[in-house]
Amino acid sequence: MNPMNPKIILVTGSFPPDVCGIGDYTHSLALALERAGMKAEVLCHRSWNVSGTIQAIRRLLAEKHSLVHIQYPTMGYGFSLGPQFCALAKHSVITLHEFSFAHPLRKLSLLPFTMHSRHLVMTSEFEKQSLIAKMPWAARRIRVIPIGSNIPPSRFLAGEARKQIAYFGLVMPRKGLEDFIAFSELVRAAELEWDLLIIGKIPPRHAAYAKGLMNSANSQVNWLLDRSPEEISDVLCRTSLGYFPFPDGASERRGSLKAAMAAGLPCITTCTEQTPMALADAMAFASTPHEAFDLALRLMDAPAERNRLSQSALTYSQSFSWEKIAQAHIELYRELNPSMG
Question: Which segments of the chain are extended strands (E)?
């Protein structure tokens, strides 16, 4: 490797076709960096037992002139501390995709990252402040860079949206899907001819949960699983409303919500302390399925308001374009290594 022309090594435990939002993000980031002229290589390491971790460390140590950037967590890491040992062995940049609502043991496991990293990337100001409150020594090395949508913009112009309400994301616990099912029961009880869609993928470890959820759903709920990013984008563009009842609220780290916004989908979601004020004009907020149902009734008969929300979402989505995300990363890399191209 030419030391005058170094590259970025993006380390992840999951990568497409694995079912993992952070794996999808890593893929999109690598492509965006390449388009911006930066050499980026993805190291997807899937074995994180003792021998697998040693193998990963040796691989990273061999990259003497490269800048290592670890994405954490991913489905593929499981409960292994292997990525932390990699960070101790090879001075790295770390992106922490979640902290504020992580389990206390997960937070404790992040100590090696906060104490021995070249820089920490957080996905929102809220996540940054949450980390500083618990681990203040990391404050001076934190940079906030938002995530983007892993779903490309639709290739087609959206026509008149169908009376259709969609959820999009991984089918797993703590995503608010139980509230979407409760919402569907209200739609059925009112005898409304609305199509209800749950679009996403099922992580293998949550197959039993997904099966139970599907068995509990009424026949008005349609499941679109394992679809291509292009197909998902086209469906979102032709949908009237999105309903994302996240238990911990809408936030900058919600890739599925950002995909909906980038598609111009008017969304109903939940608002908590981590929801940024800038989202207020681009979202409609409801704290319960009943509130969401009443709001959906009003919005279905208010095309002008839906169009306003759609345009506000599209405008907001420009702040997390992959071009801007790649540029923010490149600026950080060049600060750490001025020889970066």
Answer: 8-12, 40-44, 67-72, 93-96, 119-122, 142-144, 162-170, 195-201, 221-225, 239-244, 267-269, 284-285
| CATH number assigned to the domain with residue range 8-148+321-336, chosen from the 4 options 2.40.50.140, 3.30.450.20, 3.40.50.1220, 3.40.50.2000 | 3.40.50.2000
Residue pLDDT, tens place only, 135-193: 999 999 999 999 999 998 775 555 566 799 999 999 999 999 999 999 999 999 999 99
Q: Are 248 and 173 in contact (CB under 8 A)?
A: no
Q: CA-CA distance, 177 to 243, in Å (whole number)?
A: 10
56, 24 contact by CB (below 8 A): no
User: What is the fold, at CATH topology level, of the domain defined by 162-319?
Assistant: Rossmann fold (3.40.50)
pLDDT of amino acid 340: 79
Reported pTM: 0.92
